[in-house]
Amino acid sequence: MRQIRISRRKPAPFFLGIGAQKAGSSYLYECLSQHPEITLPPIKELHWFDEAEGQYARNLRERFRLMKVPRNRRWVKVLAMSGSKRLVTFDLPSAFWIFKFMLLNRELTESAVAAYVRLTRHVFRPNVTGDITPYYAALRPSTIRFIRRYIPDARILYILRNPVDRDFSELSMYARDHQLRQLSDIPAAYVDRVIDGGIHSNYLGNLINWVDIFGRQAVHVELFESLTEEPQSTLGRIQSFLGVSKCDIGSRAPHARVNASKPIEISSSGRLAHVRRYQNDILALAEYLKIWPHIPVERVRGWSSVKTKGT
User: 125, 9 in Cβ contact below 8 A?
Assistant: First the structure.
């Protein structure tokens, strides 16, 4: 396999935080940003690989044109969030970095990924750095193989959450953004995409893709419940996986939930039907997770119980 050679100096360790969506990735970004041996990009969720996979905005003119489309206004939103200290670091060097990142081509070619690596990895040496973009979990196997070819030493971090809670949390975020109160108020097409599409809650399929291509030792899995209930021990395992010294970073990051949404109103029968939909997938996932000894498998099996909390 080929690794991009950009500099004679040994590159800093690099990781990809691949998800899951609505599973604490914003809190993880804040915690890891506190570590003295880790330097993360000034914005969370770079989306380089999924945008490259989707043939997104090949040139600057097209990229600015697409900003007129509501779903593609992410960079406008990033700049608008510049006053926030949560998910965007905004000072002159950060602004320059963000501008350079906006100029990058998004395509799965050697020259394009070399530019991505230079900007996201080598500029931060000797510190560990990474790209925390939850959408990466659902990348196609061909894209994962591309990453493995050009960044073969990347470490993969995947945080899992009860898929029922994850789905309803995503719907709650949509309801928050559109000032809705009930599930019935959300467009049926969007609900179907989240619940019936389910690519971001297809943990087993996503895990198999990444483990088959990168290998078990390069992939680390944690549970959202562990991160929220036992942050120090969970963050300690993550720090060990990333090869940095253990620091008390959890206590220096905000304990309040980041990017949280008020739960929407869901009927008991609606939740029951959703739990039953996932039961077989959850049980199969629990068996697969046994290859990570620290994962509380019985707790994962408990996700298939109707008596779970919705958030």
Answer: yes
Identify the domain containing residue 251 by its residue range. Answer: 17-302
Convert the pLDDT of each residue in 124-181 to its tens digit: 778 999 999 999 999 999 999 999 999 999 999 999 999 888 887 777 777 777 777 7
**CATH number of the domain that 126 lies in?**
3.40.50.300
How many structural domains are present in the chain? 1
Smallest CA-to-CA distance from 160 within 299, 270, 35, 51 is with 299
Give the span between the Cα atoms of 230 and 50, in whole angstroms. Answer: 31
In a domain, 113, yes or no: yes
**DSSP characters for 253-271?**
S--SPTT--PPPB--HHHH
Q: Are 29 and 44 in contact (CB under 8 A)?
A: yes
Quick one: DSSP state of residue 186?
A: S
Q: Answer yes or no: are the C-beta atoms of 303 and 163 closer than 8 Å.
A: yes
Contacts of 256 (CB under 8 A, 6+ apart): none
Query: Is 6 among the domain residues?
Result: no
The identity of residue 234, as a single letter, is: T
Per the domain annotation, does 35 fall within a domain?
yes
Q: Which one-letter amino acid corresponds to residue 27?
A: Y
Q: What is the token pair recorded at 35?
A: 């570590």
What interhelical angle do 141-150 and 203-214 show, nearest 10? 30
Residue 310 lies inside a defined structural domain of this protein: no
